[in-house]
Amino acid sequence: MLVLLLAMPWSPPAAASPVQLGPDLPYTVVTDPAGEATPESVLPALRKGAPQHHIFSRGYTRDTFWLRFTLPPQRVAGGEHWLELKPSFIDDVRLFLRPLGSDGPWRLRRAGDTYDGPIGDVDHRFPLFVLPPNDTGYEILVRVASTSAVLLQMKLWEPREFVPAATWETGFWSFYFGLAALSTLLAVVLALVLRSRLLWSVTAISVAYVLVACVQGYVAWLIPVVGRTLQHYLTSVLTLSSYALLLWLASEALQLRQRLPWAHRLLMATCGVVGLLVLSVPLDLYGSAIHIQSLVYLSTSAVFVAACGYVWWKDRFRLSSVLLGLGPLICMVASLFGLFSALGWIPFHEQIYVVWQYSMIVNMLLVTGLAVYQMRVNHLQEQETRQLARALEVEREARFNQRQFMGLVAHEFRTPLAIIAASLQNLRYLGVSDPRQVSRYDKIGRATDRLVQLTDNCLADARLDASELWLDRRRVCLLELVTEAASLVRPAGHSWTLTLEGRAPSSVQQPAWLDPAMMRIALSNVIDNAVKYGDGGPRVDVSRRGDFWCIAIRDQGPGIPEERVAEVFERYRRGSRSEQRSDRRGVGLGLYVSRQIARAHGGDLILAENDARGCCFLFTLPLLPEDSSV
Question: What is the pLDDT of residues 215-267, one digit of tens each?
């Protein structure tokens, strides 16, 4: 059940592929401290600004910000598009748009918690603005101001993709809040029956579910008249109070009142201080309160972590003690990351908030565990022993079957292919004068290479689908790894080129922390695609950007049709017969496997460029651990 819950937010409909502001649509930004600028006054500075490629986030500040980005004709010429604005707690967002290249008047659209007028053109939890098709594209300015965290997530949707994605998301959150309601009800009943302070603290922390509902825009959506104002203040109040209630839960879970009285008093004093900060909301001092809470909460969290270690050590790491402390500890770590992201101390990632929202489910698991413990304490040991024995038996059988299957694949596929390759090499050494015979040998060689690559992809796919993917990371020279990967691909008469930062490679090693076998498969797949779909040899460039290595692989083909771009990384998706060489057709695993391998390393693989001159696929891979901060 828990695995299903954790998997759901990462499994939206496969067709959903919105264009995001930042990662997909670069923008420029200008700060307007006084908040009195106009579109025409900031436009020159915005047009000269450096493009930004990350999600816009500035933390808690009273400054007003102006953003500019463009939607080229190919983005909006095909039909109507919907522009979605998140999150729900931004006070004021103003969109100024006009046709790209025009000097005409701006069309103004508004949204935000403090805006009294209608928001959006489509009834949804978040503002949705309809962009009619336009053959010239759009130039868009965005004015953002907020008393809460300044954060803007903007996505451009095609209506046919948005509707199923929104339906799925609404269904997911309905399921989530249903579980939240059940866990809260169970906590209340058990607290009344068992009269436990721990259960009362669990009941109190359930107010965080209301905070999640505010952040997801449900309060304003379900209460049209006063919901927007109510949501505006509830978000601030519940953000502050949730941290205080979490500290109370942490103290009760570890029984610090009896075990470490001084730590309990410190946590309770912190709860009082954070509780008083709620008064800052009507005084319009919410941003200052958040900064104070962050410093207090960070120091108190360190005390709680130390208390966890002490209590677990005193209890000899007894399972029940570890579980009771682990629940609030997970919530606390998740909340800290969410807080730091909102403050702008770390880059914003939407996944941080998903983890925070999911950590609230820990309350349900904690309450359920306590109820089972109270009602079935006499049978717990027998049940755990039986479950452990069964789990060990299933695990032993699964591992045996996996070893048998992998051994069969390695023996039945790789060994005959190695024999074929060796025999073919011996035949070539004998020398052949007949061009037709040479052509046959070349065909056999290419077919053997394809079967070897297919086997490698299938084995890599099996490893990626395993519940626990283990990477054999080691220090490798990135240039040597790229060269080895390219040597696995026959360039069909074309030479390939390798550059470092756009220049000829030097003798200085470029170290990376990778699984060489897996990354060799990933790189050779993309290089092989560049050969299959291109008219010339692929060009590979290695460069360093921040904490990542970037490997750009360019082909000289006709590019990917726009309607196929969204599916190139899907499993078993292949190019059409007209798009690839007839002797090098694949099964559609290459790009999928390559992206999964890159992501397993903490990087990614994206389609960086796509036009009539060819495609550029870009790997991003982490540096060595000791070099990541250089």
Answer: 888 888 888 778 788 888 888 888 888 888 888 888 887 888 888 888 888 88
| Tokens encoding 85 | 């604005």
Q: 3-state class of 151 per DSSP? A: strand
Q: What does the DSSP 8-state code read for residue 126?
A: S
Q: Which two tokens stand for residue 53?
A: 């490629």
What element of type H or E holds 475? strand 474-477
Question: Which amino acid is residue 230, in one-letter code?
Answer: L
Residues 293, 274: contact at Cβ < 8 Å?
A: yes
- Name residue, tokens 């390939």: 496
CB 575 within 8 A of CB 533: yes
Poorest-pLDDT segment among 48-57, 113-122, 398-407, 487-496: 398-407
**Distances in whole angstroms, Cα of residue 299 to Cα of each of 173, 248, 257, 267, 336:** 33, 15, 19, 10, 11
Q: How many CB atoms lie within 10 A of CB 610?
A: 17
Residue 409, amino acid: V
User: Higher-confidence residue: 513 or 384?
Assistant: 513
* Burial bucket for residue 389 (CB in 10 Å: 0-12, 13-18, 19+): exposed
Cα–Cα distance measured from residue 581 to residue 5, given in angstroms and rounded to the nearest whole number: 43
* 374 and 194 Cβ atoms separated by less than 8 Å: yes
- Whether the Cβ atoms of residue 274 and residue 237 lie closer than 8 Å to each other: no
Mean pLDDT computed over every residue of the chain: 79
Helix, strand, coil tally for the chain in percent (to 5): 55, 15, 30
Cβ neighbours of residue 202 closer than 8 Å, sequence gap 6 or more: 187, 191, 249, 363, 366, 367
Q: In this structure, are residues 266 and 303 in contact, taking their beta carbons and an 8 Å threshold?
A: yes
Prior bond to 87 cis, omega within 30? yes
DSSP single-letter state for residue 425: H
432/439 Cα distance (integer angstroms): 10
Helix (H, G, I), strand (E, B) or coil at 162: helix
Does the pLDDT at position 582 exceed 60? no
Between the alpha carbon of residue 215 and those of residues 356, 427, 621, the distances in Å are 12, 69, 33
State the residue for tokens 């692929």: 538
Comparing CA positions, the residue from 66, 24, 62, 23 lying closest to residue 48 is 66
Strand ranges for 21-131 from DSSP E: 28-32, 56-60, 64-71, 81-86, 92-99, 107-111, 128-131
What is this structure's pTM?
A: 0.54
How big is the chain, counted in residues?
A: 630
Helix (H, G, I), strand (E, B) or coil at 5: helix
Give residues with Cβ within 8 angstroms of 411, minimum separation 6. none
Helices (H) and strands (E) in the chain, counts: 20, 17
Tell me the pLDDT tens digit for each residue of 456-473. 666 666 666 655 567 788
CA dihedral 378, 383, 388, 391 (to 10 degrees): -160
Tell me the backbone φ, ψ of residue 615, rounded to 5 degrees. -115, 155
In the sheet with 92-99, reading across from the earlier edge strand, the strands are: 28-32, 64-71, 138-145, 92-99, 107-111
Where residue 9 falls among pLDDT bands split at 50, 70, 90? very low
